[in-house]
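QA checklist item 7 of 12: single-chain prediction sanity check.
[x] sequence parsed
[x] length recorded as 329
[x] structure emitted
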Amino acid sequence: MSELVTGEAVALELRPARLPSRALAVLLDLVVAVAVYVAVTIAIVVSTASLDEAAQTALSIATFVLVLVGGPIAVETLSHGRSLGKMACGLRVVRDDGGPIRFRHALVRGLIGVIEILMTFGVVACIASFVSARGRRLGDVFAGTLVVRERIPVARTGFVPPPPPWLAGRFSGLDLSAVPDGLWLAVRQYLTRMQQLDPQVGWSMAERLASDLAERTGVPVPQGVPPGAYLAAVVHERQSREARRAFGSGPASSTAPAAEAAPVTEAAPAADAASAAEMPSAAGAASGAYGPPVVPHGAAVESSGGARPEQSQEVRAGDRPGTGFVPPA
């Protein structure tokens, strides 16, 4: 990776293209350019057969310059650094600051490319690419450009592996409130990249992070638990708590709907009816004031002298808070 700093002081991490991919892209461009040059030359020779030899020579030179020199310049300018060969190989020409190239950049690259690619059969370009730390040829050096790779293999970064099954739920009682965000970030970065680290280095990092995490939680790492598995289990526990808190599926929130959904029978105790009558209504609690007392349906049925069950169901289905009034049978 090559770090470039833009004019806005933003660091860009780009992967410069190396010699094999660049050589393949140039070869494809040359094949297309030579094919176009041969076709145009044949058409000009056929159409200018009546001209003298000097005119035909001038047309041949003009065709060479326009097709083999002006063609690549025009293509890179219009496509912002992506010729046919570069598109096939997943490459792009950019400026040193990571921005798209313009006509002057393509012009300098094209003119110098005639010397180091066409006239020397690519020998100068290969030597310059080997010498340069970022694989730049002379045209890139004088134009202030860089050829980078656009298609990069996608790595599984950002994926935290799940803990072993035998550690699921083992750390549900840990107090994670004292763990700082910086330590969580370091643990997550280690877990997402531990497959790319040297085994010995990864083990030492896991031990250090596990000791820091155990010091913050106040509970030592259990014996026989690898540090990497311990970190994955604790991170999984934190994610589970955040998910329960965000989606309301925790233990505290799961009991409330069950209590509300419990059916009210006519045999409810009088003490429960009296305590429910003193509770504020839901609408009044939302507005900051208390509403009229809510009389439970069981008490209303008892006071109505044997109301029918379907009437109590209608009262329970209402959206407004109960007033204690039940329509006559």
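[x] summary fact logged: The chain has three domains: 2-149, 165-252, 264-317.
[ ] second reviewer sign-off
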